[in-house]
Design goal:
The protein is an alpha+beta fold and 238 residues long. It is built from eight helices and 13 strands.
């Protein structure tokens, strides 16, 4: 709803068949259970207070498996909304696939990484050869940390910064191998290695596996939404 409102009349469609919209497969993939949920929540949207005091839609981001704590949207996407500050999530570990909650080491050829980075961010050419990638900022959650900003060091003696999520999806656009930015970056000769991986996705907003676990405990849709989007409010638009 937020995306539809944001783009307005600039496009003639609302959903894509990608992970951006839960890989929507069209009418053929719909079921009675889905339609019951749609009908029970029709006209309802999530809103939050804006800086001017008004209540408006906000981007209700979600990801597969947060890994134990959702992330502040400002550190991932650059936007700031009260319900998107991040909350502890002790739930997803109970239902997530083992390979989603803890994922194995992912390695990428340095030449391919450099090519992808330069194609997407031509300004990085000033660095020369990228000789190191190190954490610049991270969110610490006790037993683990999520990288939010990385520093790229070049052979020309210069450096630059990228959001960690941008680095992740530039190196691995599918996001299926380098599953999150909860990891450690290691320089391994001709490859970059990402170790101690945890979680699947950007980690902002609702954790889908966490929501599933809460639902199994008997939590209502409203209780789940208000947990992952604290300070939000459900209103009817018609």
């Amino acid at each position: 709803m937020y995306i539809k409102d944001y783009f307005g009349g600039k496009r003639t469609w609302d959903l894509t068949r990608t992970q951006a919209n839960q890989v929507y497969l069209g009418v053929k993939a719909e079921s009675d259970q889905i339609w019951n949920a749609v009908n029970q929540t029709k006209s309802q949207v999530l809103v939050c207070k804006q800086t001017d005091g008004s209540e408006r839609l906000f981007p209700a981001y979600y990801s597969s498996t947060c890994g134990g704590h959702t992330e502040n949207s400002e550190r991932v996407f650059g936007d700031s909304f009260q319900p998107l500050g991040g909350v502890p999530c002790p739930y997803c570990k109970d239902v997530a696939k083992p390979s989603f909650f803890f994922w194995p080491m992912a390695k990428f050829d340095k030449t391919n990484v450099a090519t992808r980075l330069l194609q997407k961010y031509p300004k990085l050419k000033q660095l020369g050869e990228i000789i190191n990638i190190v954490p610049a900022k991270q969110s610490n959650y006790g037993k683990f940390s999520r990288l939010t900003l990385v520093k790229l060091l070049g052979s020309a003696g210069k450096s630059d910064f990228l959001r960690a999520e941008d680095l992740r999806l530039t190196i691995d656009p599918t996001g299926r191998k380098l599953k999150s930015t909860i990891c450690q970056i290691v320089n391994m000769g001709d490859k970059w290695a990402f170790l101690s991986g945890r979680g699947y996705g950007h980690g902002v907003g609702m954790c889908q596996c966490g929501a599933q676990a809460m639902a199994r405990q008997g939590k209502t849709a409203g209780q789940i939404l208000f947990y992952y989007y604290p300070g939000s409010k459900i209103v009817r638009v018609y």
